[in-house]
Amino acid sequence: MADHRLVAEARTEFGKGSARRTRRAGRIPAVLYGHGQDVVHLSLPALEFAAVLRNGGSNALITVVLDGTEQLALTKSVQRDPLTRVHEHVDLLVVRRGERVTVDVPVVVVGEPAAETLVSVELNTVSVEAPATAIPESIEVDVTGREAGNGVTAAELSVTGGATVLTDPEALVVNLMAAPTAEQLDAELTEAEAEAGIEREESAPAAEGVGEGDVVPEPLAQGSGESVESTENS
After folding, report:
1. What are the tens digits of pLDDT across the range 198-228?
2. Is it the case that residue 190 has pLDDT exceeding 50?
3. Which residues of 48-86 are buried (b: 16+ CB within 10 A; e: fewer)?
4. 138 neighbors 108 (Cβ within 8 angstroms)
5. How many C-beta atoms lie closer than 10 Å to residue 137's C-beta?
6. How far apart are the first and last CA of the chain?
7. Which CATH architecture has domain 102-178?
């Protein structure tokens, strides 16, 4: 797990107005804390921090450079605007090389299961203890060829770099289920419609002697004085 280098700036103004001005300047308000030191208020370059998250994942390791002093930190929490997805605030946790930390690591499913099998991810993340400099970016779960009923528990997850999974070993991480039949889907739809008070309209019976695909002539207006034969010959 590589650490990324970001040059921070100290913040001396606080509040919503100050935070907005910081973001307009292309920076993100942040705090740095941990190991008994006082909380440090700073800002990070927005574009560079976004690149760190893309390359390092949610648990990115950062070397924060503030006033010429370097500090190793772990991305602990990131607040985003729910609509614009702009980074609004960052919490950074001070760490030491060699120390172990507890983090949530994303689960990624790879491979194709057996035919007519659906994959359901029951846990999007699992709790992991790992060296601060060797946190896995994600944990892959290979479902290649797995059939319905053959789920994957936390005990079956494979991690490297000295990491340990802390999530309950019996917790179901990925569930594999039989794909529903057309009849089952229709039955579920009918049940849902009944619960919602929706009544299905009955199809109108076909005209006697008319087969599927036949064209039925429109009836002539009464009193027109025309017959079918005269209309065709006109």
Report:
1. 876 665 555 555 555 555 555 555 554 444 4
2. yes
3. bbeebbeebbbbbbbebeeeeeebbbbbbebeeeeeeee
4. yes
5. 14
6. 86
7. Beta Complex (2.170)
CATH class entry, domain 5-95 = mainly beta
* The pLDDT value given to residue 50: 92
Write down the domain spans for the chain: 5-95, 102-178
Whether 49 and 61 have beta carbons less than 8 Å apart is answered as no
Q: Would you say how long the chain is, in residues?
A: 234
Three-state DSSP class for residue 203: coil
The total of other beta-carbon atoms located within 10 Å of residue 119's CB is 17
What share of the chain in percent tops pLDDT 90? 45
SS (H, E, C) 59-82: CCEEEEEECCEEEEEEEEEEEECC
pLDDT tens string 23-39: 899 999 999 999 988 99
By the 8 A CB rule, do 121 and 109 touch? yes
Q: Which pLDDT does position 214 carry in this prediction?
A: 54
The H or E element containing residue 152 is strand 152-153
Rounded Cα distance between 5 and 137, Å, is: 18
Tokens of 63: 């070397």
